């Protein structure tokens, strides 16, 4: 890996006072990170500062933040998580050309076009991985990321005192990327939970985790932004930081200056696979709500509104007659959804949901999801320069294999697909009517080469327009089914063996 350099002059400024007057000297603290070695900058010794002359008010300056007491106090509650995946099959690339298919066979072209997911199993392998987590109760309850334990057949937790425990996954929620695991231990150290709503952009934060397996590594930075929505996410209002987060940090805590956990480090934006200054954490209040449902019920129940929204910028605000660039602009309304039935229209700007202000489009999904299904909610919108209040009765979001454990009893479990219906705008863009878009693929579907973003058009020649309809078709199907799949402009039937 190439050397990455992180300048933190904004939070590492040495104050030097010399004879003849006082002046400030700012020195960048460069931390060089390499895949195998860490370069430590030489220590700088500053002269002892003389007292400032009476009557002269010292200007406000940024000073180096000392996180050592937080690391000492909270570090023992941060754990290393290692996972062993189920035995998988290694693959033969399509260049090996031993699929056994005639090159003139249309399905052979499908293999070439839809690869590399369509690969021929050969040698069994055991998959291993590492991540981080933190203890939230003395009896062994631990929070981490869902993607850390996803597909794991064995989860091992290592404490800072070198004790190791086998952990049980109580539940995971892919949509929020939160998982809850438990170890059989008592009187464990725990972290202190904070309030992310009080977090301010620019304040210092600390991460502790196991990047590349280096256990209990502490890295620091500042909060870069709040309520970030990421391209493939519709639920979590992420906290963006410039804290150095690398593979292995996933699931570890993000602390504020008080030593309280305000987030769970989850994702990075990187073109190299390593840290590049853009790290994203799940707000801890979102995580604890998910944790409570997983512990109590083993799954997460959310409400559904049925709209697609986008951020309001200054140009859009002026176009829609808004005083400021705030709110969530409705770009589409799903037919028959609670929003549709409540009178919401494309072009409405949602300003408040149940009395809570919507400053960013990312604020809305979490508020909707946290409202109990069946609840009548009031939504204030701006339409044509006029404020309107709508009453919408929320429904339960269709489970898409995003929470809890799959027992394989339903149709989506047999196919191994997480699906959602296409919005009218999406149908128009793709040029089809009906269809279900693939959010995630596993089991027989993944083995057949179906992947995220594909559109399922029919099963055994029968068009599908809803998740429930597909579930019924699969429940009546035999061992083998054929799915008509569209990817970009290509359509082809894909055979699946449901076993």
Strand content: 35-45%
Q: Give me the oligomer status.
A: single chain
Fraction of residues in H or I helices: 10-25%
Q: Care to count the β-strands?
A: 34
Q: Overall pLDDT, averaged?
A: 77
Count of alpha/pi helices: 11
Name of the top-level CATH class of the largest domain: Mainly Beta
Could you say what the CATH topology of the largest domain is called?
Thrombin, subunit H
* Structural class by secondary-structure content: alpha+beta
Count of domain modules: 5
- Poorly predicted runs of 5 or more residues: 1-55, 88-99, 106-124, 400-411
CATH architecture assignment of the largest domain: Beta Barrel
Identify the strand order in the major beta sheet: 6-9-10-13-12-11
Question: What does this protein structure show overall?
Answer:
Mean pLDDT is 77; it is low at 1-55, 88-99, 106-124 and 400-411. A 6-stranded antiparallel β-barrel has the order 6-9-10-13-12-11. It has a 6-stranded antiparallel barrel with strand order 15-16-17-20-19-18. It is 16% helix and 38% strand. The chain is built from 11 helices and 34 strands. The radius of gyration is 26 Å and the shape is globular. It is of the alpha+beta class and 499 residues long.
């Amino acid at each position: 890996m190439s050397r990455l350099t992180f300048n933190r002059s904004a939070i590492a400024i040495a104050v030097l006072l010399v004879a003849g007057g006082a002046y400030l000297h700012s020195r960048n603290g460069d931390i060089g990170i390499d895949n195998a070695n860490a370069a430590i900058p030489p220590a700088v010794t500053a002269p002892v500062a003389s007292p400032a002359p009476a009557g002269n008010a010292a200007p406000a300056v940024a000073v180096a933040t000392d996180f050592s007491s937080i690391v000492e106090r909270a570090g023992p509650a941060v754990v290393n998580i290692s996972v062993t995946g189920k035995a998988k099959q290694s693959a033969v690339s399509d260049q090996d050309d031993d699929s056994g298919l005639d090159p003139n066979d249309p399905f052979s072209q499908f293999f070439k076009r839809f690869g590399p997911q369509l690969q021929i199993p050969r040698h069994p392998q055991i998959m291993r991985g590492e991540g981080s987590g933190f203890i939230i109760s003395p009896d062994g309850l631990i929070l981490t990321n869902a993607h850390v334990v996803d597909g794991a057949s064995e989860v091992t937790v290592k404490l800072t005192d070198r004790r190791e425990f086998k952990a049980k996954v109580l539940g995971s929620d892919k949509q929020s990327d939160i998982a809850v695991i438990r170890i059989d231990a008592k009187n464990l150290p725990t972290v202190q939970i904070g309030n992310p709503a009080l977090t301010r952009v620019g304040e210092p934060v600390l991460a502790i985790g196991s990047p590349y397996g280096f256990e209990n590594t502490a890295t620091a930075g500042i909060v870069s932004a709040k309520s970030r929505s990421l391209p493939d996410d519709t639920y979590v209002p992420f906290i963006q930081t410039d804290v150095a987060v690398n593979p292995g940090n996933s699931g570890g805590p993000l602390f504020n200056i008080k030593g309280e956990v305000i987030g769970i480090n989850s994702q990075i934006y990187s073109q190299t696979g390593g840290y590049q200054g853009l790290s994203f954490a799940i707000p801890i209040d979102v995580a604890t709500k998910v944790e409570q449902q997983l512990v109590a019920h083993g799954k997460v129940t959310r409400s559904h509104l049925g709209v697609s929204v986008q951020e309001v910028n200054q140009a859009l605000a002026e176009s829609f007659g808004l005083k400021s660039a705030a709110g969530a602009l409705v770009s589409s309304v799903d037919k028959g959804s609670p929003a549709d039935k409540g009178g919401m229209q494309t072009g409405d700007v949602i300003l408040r949901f149940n009395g809570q202000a919507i400053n960013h489009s990312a604020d809305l999904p979490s508020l909707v999801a946290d409202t109990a299904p069946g609840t009548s909610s009031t939504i204030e919108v701006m339409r044509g320069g006029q404020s309107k209040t709508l009453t919408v009765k929320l429904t339960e979001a269709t489970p898409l294999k995003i929470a809890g454990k799959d027992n394989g009893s339903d149709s989506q479990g047999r196919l191994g697909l997480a699906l959602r219906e296409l919005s009218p705008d999406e149908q128009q863009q793709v040029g089809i009517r009906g269809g279900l878009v693939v959010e995630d693929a596993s089991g027989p579907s993944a083995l057949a080469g179906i992947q995220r973003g594909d559109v399922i058009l029919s099963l055994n020649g029968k068009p599908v327009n809803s998740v429930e309809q597909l579930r019924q078709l699969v429940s009546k199907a035999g061992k083998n089914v054929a799915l008509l799949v569209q990817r970009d402009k290509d359509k082809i039937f894909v055979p699946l063996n449901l076993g």
